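Fold it.
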Amino acid sequence: MKPLVILYATRQGQTRRIAEHIQAAIRERGHTARIRNLREVREPFILDRYDGAILAASVHLGKHEPELLDFVKRHRDELDKVPTAFLSVSLAEAGAEDATRSEEDRAKATADVQRVIHEFLDQTGWRPRRVRAVAGALLYSKYNFLVRFVMKQIAKKAAMASDTSQDYEFTDWKAVEHFVDDVLSDHAAHTAKRDVPAPA
């Protein structure tokens, strides 16, 4: 059986952590998974070597990482031939999941998350079988002075943690595990359908 591939694009590393968590969860469930940083992928990249693909990328200033956009545009036809899933990692999703916020604020954050995802999918024409928004992190310790200042202003505006002396992780790891189960269910269905013998 071919492995699954997890392709990620990240800036400060939270999406890499999520990708690594997904890889470990897939292995714990008895499957094989490879993980690749999209910044390090060299062409030609042959998706036929894999039984499915999970693509994950962080969002900055309302846009997914450019290497994800480039990869999907180049490989959309191949992606359409295997089960695929997409994780969009953002701080807006943290706002959407924050139970301490008002319903109005959470609804606005949810709308922002969905808008960014839909814009990306419309721009690429890609239609993954699974799409999941995942809350990211504020990793102040990993930012340079300018990025730390900008992220602090964004956090303040969004009523999020703005104390730059510490980092904040918002990722719901249980939700990520549920996502893995859904992906493996799709993978099993695809494999069973592919392996059905042709009528005599």
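The mean pLDDT is 89.
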